[in-house]
Structure prediction request, 1378 residues.
Amino acid sequence: MSDGKYFSTTKRGEIHELKEELRSLDRPKKKDAVKKVIAAMTVGKDVSMLFPDVVNCMQTDDLELKKLVYLYLINYAKTQPDLAIMAVNTFVKDSQDPNPLIRALAVRTMGCIRVDKITEYLCDPLQRCLKDDDPYVRKTAAICVAKLYDINPELVEDRGFLDMLREMLSDANPMVVANALAALQEIQELAGSGGKDLLQMTSQTLNKLLAALNECTEWGQVFILDSLAAYDTRDPRDAEKIAERVLPRLQHVNSAVVLSAVKVILRCMDVVALGPGGGEETIKGWSKKMAPPLVTLLASEPEVQYVALRNINLIVQRRPAILANEVKVFFCKYNDPLYVKMEKLEIMIRLASDKNIDQVLLELKEYAQEVDVDFVRKSVRAIGRCAVALEKATERCINVLLELIQTKVSYVVQEAIIVIKDIFRRYPNQYESIIATLCDNLDSLDEPEAKSSMIWIIGEYAERIDNADELLEAFLETFPEETAMVQLQLLTATVKLFLKKPTESAQKMISAVLSCATNETDNPDLRDRAYIYWRLLSTDPEAAKDVVLAEKPVIADDSSTLDPSLLEQLVSRYLATVAAVYHRPPETFVSRQRMAVTRAEELGSRKFEEDDGATPGTMVSDNNAAAAAGAAAAAVGDLLDLSDASPVPVPPAAAVGAAAATRGLDDLLGGLDLGGPTIRSSIPHIHPAAAAADPFAALANSSPAPISLGISPAALSQLPVLLANPGGVSVQGRLVRQGGQAVYQLALRNDTLAPVDGLMIQTNRNSFGLSPASQVLAVSAPGGVIPPGGLAPVRVPLLVDPSKVTPPPLNTGLQVALRTNQVGVLYFNDTVPLSALTEETGTMEAADFLAAWKTLPPEASTRLPLAVPSAEVAKQRLAAANLFVLAHRQVPATSQDAIYATCRITAGGVGQVLLELKFVAGAGGVDVSVKAERQDVAQLVFDGLPAVLLGAA
Amino acid sequence: MAISAIFFLDIKGRIIIFRDYRGDVSPKYAEKFMSKINEMEEAGKLSPVIYDDGVTYLYLQVSNLYLLAVTRTNVNACSTLVFLHRVVDVFRHYFQELEEESLRDNFVIVYELLDEVMDFGYPQFTEAKILAEYIKTDAYKMEATVKPPMAVTNAVSWRMEGIRHKKNEVFLDVVESVNLLVSSTGQVVLSEVVGVLKMRAYLSGMPECKLGLNDKVLFESQGRTSKQKAVELEDIKFHQCVRLARFENDRTISFIPPDGAFDLMTYRISQNIKPLIMVECSVEKPSRSRTEYLVKARSQFKERSQANTVEIMLPLPADAISPTMKCTQGSAAYVPEKSALVWTIKSFPGGKEYSLRCHFGLPSVEAEDEGKGKMPPIKVKFEIPFFTVSGVQVRYLKVIEKSGYQALPWVRYITTSGNYEIRMV
Prediction:
């Protein structure tokens, strides 16, 4: 019997008819009706109006019918949250059904219904099912905890589900172990890397996982292996133990198991390398075992092959020894899909060596004569890249290229000329004898890149080409129609020709080109370059020679070579994942959203690049939700739910004012206190009653003494503007460190026509837990009132409140809300300068510094483009910002200054930070390396250091 | 992390059926999928993992369908794609053919299966035979108390308890396929043997099996001298029923087999092999519009063996005119839709050589096109029974079950052509 017929009912009045049928007492008729509803849902029709009728069918013994109703619920519960509650009773009942299949089904489905009201009822059944006798129910319940955490993390923590999950890691059943592990991993990632270590991987849990590895399904094995790769061990013996247990997995038939096992072993290699003797023998042994399974991955389905090849590309870069002798297996088969062939080519180039280059070249030549143009082009480029990489083989490569040029296939010739230009750049004055052959093929050049390559060659070797002027002249005929790339190259080549062979014809050509490039073009690059040449040639031809004919630096093939630290991360942490396929760190593409937020997605689509700075698992798109809420001026609480998002949109003051005015300060600050990552839905979280009872009752009584800012009125107006509000209240200010704490020096200007009073301040949760010691602003003006046109300085000491610390990564953003009786609430955003955080007692002994430098995780480095007058000045400025300089030395040979400094930041749990600063002579720049226990500290330092070094702090 | 949703799309990219596991990637994204892959294809950058607007798409194409997984997280790409292939296997097991019609006709089962194979975006269970025990195609067969089989969560997730067979038998086929690439100058560029041990087990109860091969590593570790020829198996992959840790320890292949047909193990050997059947093709062009092929096919294995159903596919130019051919053995035919000449030889004993001559014309006006690339390679298909290239032998297959029955093992050997290509001049 086919179910296809259910799709065919499209007549009018269908919904009404379905309603009737759903209410029918005839069971087969009822079931048919539900099937019709699901069929309609499948083709995208809205059948949500049938909700009550479908839910009424839920209580049934018919498992198939039950499953269909559940499916309907998952789809439409969100749209009918009030009615969804109707389903709760059946869920609770089903979760106690004697049949484990039904118990599991109930728990699985309940977790998928993302309605707040239901989640509360979910807890008791879930608790029972986590302890169920049947492993099938337990493994389903384990995943359900992760679902619940996504909706309501507090509930999961309050009910102790996390502890129960951890206990499940010792469950007798391997599938339960694997799913509990997957759930814990997910929750860990959601909570952020700085959250508690949920897994608490002890050697005992480790042993359990390794034992379960032998027994669970292939997918369970993948979960376990992926979590082993995330396990951070520094003990070579540990690593050896793990690798020994994981090695047999390489024999698994599932490619995913194999690749994840490879990842774990590669990571173990890194750890073993730190051990005695660099673990050389061990690594060699493992490498030998790893090669055949990696090769076998190439026999899998083409899609899987593609992923394997992208990963092998990384492995080959990181540990070239493993596949050094296997270049042959990467030869392309005629019927391989194009995407597989392209990846194989990349790896062939990487594995090409003096030993195998002849074979590789034969293959590449073969590919260069195939039919697919993209593949042919890439093959020709590959020959060039081999030549650039392998000096001894260059001549052979060139011979192959010349043979290919003889085929006279236009795109092959053009591609060959492009790579020959690169070879000339790499090995100057060695292979110019072939120029004549190239010149025979000028007619077939019609692509800009090939043309400009050829023109470059003619210009560069003008003195060796007898008829260089004629050749260039031929190109010049079409000068005005050429693309910018070719025009620029023609301009330069003509100048070169003129400088090398100042004949009459060359002179004519040059004046023609220069006048054409300056008068008849609207491309500024071309015009400016022409003017520069013109000026140079007319004032000082010798100087022109020095500039135009200067010796060029030697090139190397670094296309698609990755930065070593990214490479390490991709290989030992992210192998097999999407990040390793893209060759990009996950934060550049992960856009995980919280479920409740997805409805706001229409409001802003996000681009690849925008995601920079986000970490896996953080809810980047909170920005969208916030923007949406701001635009609607719906609720202040939502605005402040921004927590750790970096680019905070400043809400339109008017809208905020209006919203705040209706709700009052208590609401606002209540919202502030609640705001932050713990709140996981965009439903307003304002609890006026709770907020009213908030700290304010107590604060109202306190009468803080006015404190002056301790700076002159002139200096006052020099403070950076934080909030400009012409005709309203403006804020200037800066965060500094005074008396061992961070202090906000603020100046408030009242540009309204009435006095302003009742000033209060609050900060949103931030990376350092900075929060005002007192929320009432002690304005140093009579009676705490700022008269119209008045400027009142305020000093706000900030305390570190650990409960206000947001989870990592560190973010220097600080959001402040300022409340007045007259103009409502003002918001502004500030960044916390490094110098406000570094502690006065944060120094350490030089010896300890050295020891710490060795034990801490690898440093992060960057070059800051700063012009610092001298190392001495830098030292003074560092010291002023509590960055204690421990050593200063000259780097041998380079005469660079290197400074070693340290600082300590307790706020936000940053800890001790070790810095190395190298001043790059001449160029003006500082190479900074940072080491700290936490990896996210580096960015904080990189962001904060320029202000310190430039003396702005 | 996990997958957000799985979509089945038709060849034009329209959604046929989908299951949303996490609710963070709306079907809108699947609707954009087709235009995205068209755009990538035009740029020559199409791959099975693509990114657009915060969402990663991982997909396969099966007959007239796209099977698409979407995510916003850094999911395990390898596992996702393997999983999609497994889903295809499961559906084929249920509906024979996986295509648009079979999905629509069985949408209730499709939803049920999608609910079972994955939970919250995490792959759960993809053993079709066991799934069939509790998700049945015919609704009327459903008994009131269907329970999840123990196997779903057990260590032995591939076999049900209480299986009965009247006759306890095991069939084992050792199938070796030869992948070969020969250059136009007759050099062997690439040669490897991929072997599969295909088992069909019809055994009662929970049988413990032990398989012995002439494995060189095993022989060496036991200090056996080479009375028997031993084979070095390069990369062995086992069905999940084989205890990998045990194999790693002492190279014993021990397992409880699934019921019915399955691949017990695969291995690869990349030693240099002499081409079993060598084809040489010399091309002569007496005039601009005439071309002549002289093809020689030589069998290079022992005379007592014999290759069956040998098929040699010779590429011809797409614009070849009226080819005529003559061969000393078998029959040859022109297949215009493949632009090839297919030469079939029913039986080809070892140590023989046959030849074929082919004339064809070409249009006198040469097409002036870009795709003037080389000809595709010559492809050869064959089967040689009772023969393995590697010399692998099954020494024993022991079956022990607590009821103590005697099981009969049957072993066959066969060598076939895999990707067997000889490049044209």
Residues 173 and 539 of chain A are 86 Å apart (CA to CA). Chain A touches chain B through 128 residues (CB under 8 Å).
